[in-house]
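Supplementary Methods. Inverse-folding protocol.

Structures were first reduced to a discrete structure-token string of length 459. This string, shown here, constituted the complete conditioning input.
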């Protein structure tokens, strides 16, 4: 094939790819909408075949349509959890049924903004937004039906939440259109809640306990305890005291230690909003030693342990005697009802070999566990030739101090003996010399008659 033919084929393929992409975009975008890479905008109703019908509600005999917005948002809740819905929710009439479709959805990776402006909404539920971290909710151009259903929007506007206080919102009261902030409704407010215990509930493992929660208000609230993640067996008993109190009792059977620290929450909610109250469970149980490992050489030598108990148990170590030394210390961290740490030994020797017993005790009981620690093999004899003592826990520094004292005493004794030897030798010789110098001279013929005179013998 010659070069011009190859160039012509490439151009044809290129044009075909462009046409295919254009045709695909045309098929993906409804004919009543304008589409781009980032959004779809529709301002006309169509037959609905390009979009799924997400909410249906039959019209009444009068033919007036109503919008099932809650069901609509339930179907797209997974989208709202990660993205913002920005666009319009358009009505579509089909025979005797009024349906709502989603002809305009644009996605943004910022889920703090939700724009529902200029939508033909008449009511909206706060529950649609309870799992969203909204910094701004745009409702410009929406005219609601005045009533308890939109009371929550009025309250948000008064509190300045989600930027609603900067918007001019309206509701329709019969034939009149009034500002939403001027709407006045009685018996329509956020419910109040109360629980039978204070912020903490103390119990012992195996107990049975009942806690109650009362939600009051108008409209009558729904009340329930959240028990997801609770290990203890539980039962609910609900009572309604008309016109405005809903009570529910929660009974915990054979309370488990695994529920220690669990935050038990009661929720009361109605059309206007939600309130909650919490009780933290404090389950007491006797200590248990979950782990006691053999010594392991790290920066220092560590006997690792894990103890669980509440109230927090007191730990004591035993090795031939109660351990209390600057060379042996306990290091541990607290996590919920767990104590994890090390018995740390500084440069242990063969004198430290033996059994190490950990004792953990609290007001509910005491438990012990023993592990054998081997650090060094003992030599057959000490350097001085004596056998190695079997029950001697003297530290190396203490041995050095004892040897120093012994050497000092030996040196002092030697010096003393040398001094004594010199003194004895010196004074013994002087006595001998003195004795020789004063020995009496033999008598002569000239001195016999002069008594006991002596003559100095010079030697």
């Amino acid at each position: 094939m010659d070069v011009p033919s190859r160039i012509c084929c490439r151009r044809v393929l290129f044009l075909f790819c462009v046409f295919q992409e254009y045709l695909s975009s045309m098929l993906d975008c409804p004919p009543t909408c304008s589409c781009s890479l980032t959004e779809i905008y529709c301002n006309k109703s169509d037959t609905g075949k390009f979009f799924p019908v997400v909410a249906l509600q039959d019209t009444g005999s009068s033919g007036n349509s109503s919008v099932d917005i809650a069901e609509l948002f339930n179907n797209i809740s997974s989208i709202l959890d990660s993205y913002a819905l920005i666009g319009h929710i358009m009505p579509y009439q089909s025979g005797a049924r009024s349906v709502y479709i989603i002809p305009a959805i644009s996605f943004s990776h910022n889920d703090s903004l939700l724009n529902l402006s200029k939508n033909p909404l008449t009511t909206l539920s706060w529950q649609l937004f309870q799992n969203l971290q909204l910094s701004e909710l745009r409702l410009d151009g929406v005219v609601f039906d005045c009533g308890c259903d939109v009371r929550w929007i009025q309250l948000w506007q008064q509190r300045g939440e989600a930027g609603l206080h900067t918007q001019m919102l309206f509701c329709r009261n019969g034939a009149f259109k009034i500002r939403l902030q001027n709407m006045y409704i009685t018996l329509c407010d956020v419910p109040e809640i109360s629980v039978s215990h204070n912020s903490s509930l103390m119990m012992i493992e195996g107990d049975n306990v009942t806690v109650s929660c009362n939600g009051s208000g108008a409209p009558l609230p729904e009340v329930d305890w959240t028990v997801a993640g609770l290990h203890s067996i539980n039962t609910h008993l609900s009572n309604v005291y008309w016109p405005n109190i809903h009570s529910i009792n929660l009974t915990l059977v054979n309370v488990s230690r695994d529920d220690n620290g669990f935050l038990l929450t009661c929720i009361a909610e109605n059309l206007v909003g939600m309130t909650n109250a919490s009780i933290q469970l404090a389950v007491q149980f006797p200590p248990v030693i979950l782990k006691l490992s053999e010594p392991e050489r790290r920066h220092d030598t560590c006997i690792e342990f894990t103890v669980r108990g509440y109230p927090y148990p007191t730990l004591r170590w035993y090795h031939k005697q109660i351990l209390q030394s600057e060379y042996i210390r306990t290091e541990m961290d607290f996590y919920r009802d767990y104590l994890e740490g090390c018995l740390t030994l500084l440069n242990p020797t063969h004198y430290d070999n033996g059994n190490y017993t950990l004792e953990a005790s609290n007001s509910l009981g005491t438990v012990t566990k023993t592990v054998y620690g081997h650090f060094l093999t003992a030599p057959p004899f000490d350097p001085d030739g004596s056998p190695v003592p079997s029950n001697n826990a003297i530290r190396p520094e203490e041995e050095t101090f004892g040897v120093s004292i012994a050497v000092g005493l030996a040196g002092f004794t030697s010096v003393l003996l040398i001094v004594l030897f010199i003194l004895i030798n010196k004074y013994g010789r002087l006595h001998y010399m003195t004795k020789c110098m004063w020995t009496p001279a033999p008598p002569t013929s000239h001195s016999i008659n002069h008594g006991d005179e002596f003559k100095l013998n010079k030697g």
